[in-house]
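ARCHIVE CARD
Drawer: 12
Card no.: 0347
Subject: one protein chain, sequence and derived structure
Cross-reference: see card 0346
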Amino acid sequence: VCQKAAHPLVDSAAGDRDTSAPMAPKVSPHDYFDVILPTILRWKGPAAAALGVNVRFVVTGRGGGTWTVRLRPPAAGVVSGAEWKADLVVKITSEELGKILAGTFDAGRAIAAGNIELQGDLTVLRRVGFLFQSGGSQTEVRTEGTHPTTGASDE
């Protein structure tokens, strides 16, 4: 018999949560990069790996750390640290990352306040937006940045 573990991000019947709060529980950077994002990448499969980029996230503040997201063949993945060379480095506060995950992020305000810095190939941002979106399909990831009929890159 397979039992599902109670987890506040997955199981709404988790016992110790304050259910009076209208918002979903906060996701820590470690929860996102160590559990949630690897699950998203497995779901997206080879389409995510086909993007051919590495993105490093340097999260400062409470619960911060450094993670590198590999979106290259043979399989997409996430490693803690700076193991792979990054095409784009995103330095962001844990507070702003929380806003991205909650869908309340204001890029202009975050940049003006110095809460996010970008280094490297900024065109990568357009191709990796799915990392922070719920829903979608493998086809949407596969066709992002490519010609819809030939599959050739439009860059």
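Annotation on reverse: Residues 29-44 form the longest helix (16 residues). The chain has six helices and five strands.
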